[in-house]
C-alpha cells in the first residue's frame, strides 16, 4: 500500500464530502480510511482476465412487499423538526457551486 494517510488528507476528504469533522473524529476516520484502502488493494489483486464487464444489473424479482400508501406524519410535525423551511417544504443548501 502507499504512504499512510495523514490528518490533512482525512480533512481534505471530509471537505470534499462536505463534512465538518471535529478534531476528535479524525483519528477514527483515519483508521477507517486505511482499512477501506486496504480492502481496495486486496480487490486489485484479483484477476479479472476473461471476465466480461457488467453493463447493467437487472432486478430479477419484485420487492418483498407491495408499495401501498399509508398514513404518514402531518406536514406540520415533520417541518417542525427541520432547521429551515419555506413554502411548506424543507430548505436545503444548493449543491451547485456558484
Secondary-structure blueprint:
Blueprint: H1 7-16, H2 26-44, H3 75-80, E1 85-86, E2 89-90
Antiparallel strand pairs: 1-2
Task: Give an overview in words.
The protein is mainly α. It is 36% helix and 4% strand. It has three helices and two strands. The chain has helices at 7-16, 26-44, 75-80; strands spanning 85-86, 89-90. Strands 1-2 form a two-stranded antiparallel sheet. A hairpin with a 2-residue loop joins strand 1 and strand 2 (89-90). It starts with 6 loop residues before the first helix and ends in an 8-residue tail after the last strand. The mean pLDDT is 87.
Terminal residue distance: 37 Å
Main sheet overview: 2 strands, antiparallel
Low-confidence stretches: none
Give me the side-by-side strand order of the main sheet: 1-2
Number of helices: 3
Helix content: 25-40%
Q: Structural class per helix/strand content?
A: mainly alpha
Could you give the count of β-strands? 2
What would you say about this model in short?
Helices cover 36% and strands 4% of the residues.
Keywords:
3 helices; mainly alpha; 98 residues
Amino acid at each position: 500500500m502507499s504512504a499512510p494517510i495523514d490528518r490533512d488528507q482525512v480533512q481534505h476528504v471530509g471537505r470534499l464530502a462536505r463534512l465538518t469533522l471535529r478534531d476528535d473524529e479524525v483519528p477514527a476516520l483515519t483508521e477507517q480510511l486505511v482499512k477501506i484502502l486496504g480492502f481496495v488493494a486486496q480487490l486489485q489483486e484479483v484477476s479479472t482476465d476473461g471476465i466480461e464487464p457488467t453493463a447493467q444489473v437487472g432486478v430479477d424479482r419484485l420487492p418483498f412487499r407491495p408499495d401501498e400508501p399509508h398514513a404518514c406524519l402531518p406536514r406540520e410535525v415533520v417541518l417542525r423538526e427541520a432547521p429551515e423551511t419555506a413554502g411548506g417544504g424543507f430548505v436545503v443548501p444548493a449543491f451547485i457551486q456558484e
